[in-house]
């Protein structure tokens, strides 16, 4: 471990570099690169990112938002989580509405968007065919999320998980990062709220160590959910605002 208490990866910037260079899952590598070559007609003039997409947001985030995986013509095209697709349109508008984003749109990695006290990541960093990673791919990618959690530990106080897949993928990562996940594992539901006790500090159980983590469930911002009204902007804002309050973020609208 580094002298500053981090896990030896050189901080989130170094972790993001390592994530972007990963080639661990042959099916995902082949798919993301094929999409980047063939493109979608509407984006024919784009040079696609075509690599794993790292997390996005400040290194001292108090709130983490965990999705599923990058979209083939969204994050896989732009190189930034939830950027350039309709799911991102919904998410960043809501983040802006509650004061956690500097602007309501996310179209490219250089569009000037900044997150305020929040970071966005996924349990799977490559765009998967049909938006469905396999359980093996999910598990192979988990160490990246565990390392991200370890690096965010000093400030992280709340997490919003989008969708059941993300929930199932994230719970083992929280456990590996040292938080206590209840048994039986809590079930996913929109509006679910679970408090995960933090790891004991280096002096043992009497040392409070890391703070507890407030975990929130939210329906995913997929087109299927938002077009059908299963997830409305009001519902999304409510979860984000509640999570921001639990994280101790002030100035939210």
Automatic annotation (TrEMBL):
GO biological process: base-excision repair
Entry keywords, A to Z: 4Fe-4S, DNA damage, DNA repair, Hydrolase, Iron, Iron-sulfur, Metal-binding
Single GO MF annotation: 4 iron, 4 sulfur cluster binding
A Pfam family per the record: UDG
Family: Belongs to the uracil-DNA glycosylase (UDG) superfamily. Type 5 (UDGb) family.
Protein name: Type-5 uracil-DNA glycosylase
Source organism: Streptomyces lincolnensis
């Amino acid at each position: 471990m580094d002298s500053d208490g981090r896990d030896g990866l050189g901080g989130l910037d170094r972790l993001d570099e390592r994530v972007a260079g990963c080639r661990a899952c042959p099916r995902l590598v082949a798919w993301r690169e094929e999409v980047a070559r063939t493109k979608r007609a509407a984006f024919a003039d784009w040079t696609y990112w075509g690599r794993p997409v790292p997390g996005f947001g400040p290194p001292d985030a108090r709130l983490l938002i965990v999705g599923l995986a990058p979209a083939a013509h969204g994050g896989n095209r732009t190189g930034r989580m939830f950027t350039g697709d309709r799911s991102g349109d919904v998410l960043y508008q809501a983040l802006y509405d509650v004061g956690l984003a500097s602007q309501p749109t996310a179209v490219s990695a250089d569009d000037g968007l900044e997150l305020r006290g929040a970071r966005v990541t996924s349990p799977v960093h490559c765009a998967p065919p049909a938006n469905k990673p396999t359980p093996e791919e999910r598990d192979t990618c988990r160490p990246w999320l565990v390392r991200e959690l370890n690096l965010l530990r000093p400030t992280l106080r709340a997490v919003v998980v989008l969708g059941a897949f993300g929930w199932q993928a994230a719970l083992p990562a929280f456990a590996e990062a040292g938080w206590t996940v209840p048994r039986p594992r809590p079930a996913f539901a929109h509006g679910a709220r679970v408090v995960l006790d933090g790891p004991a500090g280096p002096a043992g159980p009497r040392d409070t160590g890391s703070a507890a983590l407030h975990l929130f469930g939210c329906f995913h911002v997929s087109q299927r959910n938002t077009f059908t009204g299963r997830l409305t902007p009001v519902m999304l804002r409510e979860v984000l605002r509640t999570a921001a309050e639990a994280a101790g973020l002030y100035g939210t609208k």
